[in-house]
Amino acid sequence: MKTLITSLFVSAGLLAGAGNALASEALAKKYNCLTCHAVDKKVIGPSYQDVAAKYKGDAGAEGKLIAKVKNGSSGAWGQTPMPPNATVPDADIKTLVKWVLSTKK
Predict the structure, then answer these.
(1) 99 and 21 Cβ atoms separated by less than 8 Å
(2) What is the DSSP letter of 83?
(3) What is the rounded CA–CA span in Å between residue 100 and residue 105?
(4) How far apart are CA 28 and CA 32, in angstroms?
(5) pTM for the model
(6) I need a labelling partner for 54 at 20 to 30 A (CA). Which of 8, 63, 82, 91 fits?
(7) Per residue in 42-85, pLDDT tens?
């Protein structure tokens, strides 16, 4: 019985994680992030997996990336600048950044 309950909790956690990833990907589509980025390959900007790898272990990564997404940035990944996304709600930017940082190769 204990094994069954543990399995149910693990399954529920995996489903919730998958649901969060799908919701985050929907936000990326809504705000046209996927025009320049992809999860697993460079498009115009870096892949989300490359961003996660670059900031792995950086305690301030979330704040840094939220600022870069909101205000735009240049030079971190080459010549092409990322335009500001000032009209995207802060809560959505935070959700997107958390998702990007969670992607793994």
Answers:
(1) yes
(2) P
(3) 12
(4) 6
(5) 0.79
(6) 91
(7) 999 999 999 999 999 999 999 999 999 999 999 999 999 999 99
